[in-house]
Amino acid sequence: MPHESRTPLSRLDPNAPLVLDTRALSRQPGSSREQSLKVPAPEDFGVEMVGVPEGAELELDLRFEAVLEGVLVTGTAWVPLEGECGRCLDPIASTFEADFQELFVYPDTRSGGNAEDDELRLEDDLLDLEPVLRDAVLLALPLSPLCRDDCPGLCPDCGVRLADAGPDHHHDAADPRWAALQGLKQEDLREGKQEG
User: Fold this and answer.
1) Could you tell me how far CA 114 lies from the centroid of its own chain?
2) Residue 123 to residue 105: CA distance in whole angstroms
3) Helix (H) or strand (E) holding 33
4) Which residues contact 82 (CB under 8 A, 6 or more apart)?
5) Which of 18, 195, 173 has its CA nearest to residue 104?
6) Which residue, 61, 114, 120, 175, has most beta carbons within 10 Å?
7) Helix (H, G, I), strand (E, B) or coil at 137
8) CB contact at 8 A, 142 and 149
C-alpha cells in the first residue's frame, strides 16, 4: 500500500514573482526583516477605466514581522497606471501609491487550523502577496478617473472636447416640447413670402 502524505503539497509556485519566502524569520516572534522588490505586474490588474499594464514594473517596500500566529506583512507599493479620463476620454498615465498590511497565519497553529476562508495562510513558509496587493490597489482606484480635477469633459451635442472648444462653445437647440410651434412659425414665414 503506497504511503500517503497527510500534508497537502503547496499550491504556491516559489518562482512566482509575488510568492515570497519567510524562512529567514525562523518563526521567532519578534524577528523581522525588510525587503525591497521590483516585480512585474500580474494580468488584469485594474478596473474598467484605469489599471496597471500587464508586466509593468511594481516597486515594493516590505517589512516582514514574525508573530505568534504567523507573519505580519506591511508594505508600500508604487504602481504605474494607464487608462482614460472618465469625462473627456483622453489617455491618463500616472503613478499610484498603495499601503497595505496583512497577517499570514501558520497552518499548524491553533488560529491557523481554525482560520476562516478569507484569512491568508502560509504554505511551507511561503506567502502569496498578489491577493493582498490586488486588494490594496484595486479598492483604491477611482472608478471614473480624471485627467485633471476640473476636466470639463465632452460636449453632449457634438462630442468636441470642451477644454479645446473655449467658453463660447454652444449649440442652439430647440426644446423638443416647442418643436410643433417651431413648425407653425416656419409655415407662417413661408405663407407670408407667398402672399407678398
Assistant:
1) 31
2) 9
3) strand 32-40
4) 50, 51, 52, 53, 91, 92, 93
5) 18
6) 120
7) helix
8) no
Residue 132's SS3 state is helix
Task: Give strand pairing partners of 77.
Answer: 60, 98
Classify each residue of 91-116 as buried b or exposed e, where b means 16 or more C-beta atoms within 10 Å of its C-beta.
Answer: ebeeeeebebebebbbeebeebeebe
pLDDT band, very low/low/confident/very high, at 109 (cuts 50, 70, 90)? low
What span, in angstroms and rounded, lies between the C-alpha atoms of 59 and 35? 11
pLDDT-derived band at 112, boundaries 50, 70, 90: very low
57 phi and psi, to 5 degrees?
A: -80, 125
Cα separation, 26 vs 183, whole angstroms = 86
Q: For position 143, what pLDDT does the model report?
A: 86
Q: What is the mean pLDDT of residues 168-172?
A: 80
What values do phi and psi take at 106, rounded to 5?
-70, 135
Residue 6: what pLDDT?
Answer: 43
Angle at 150 between CA 146 and CA 151, to 5 degrees: 55
pTM for the structure as a whole: 0.72
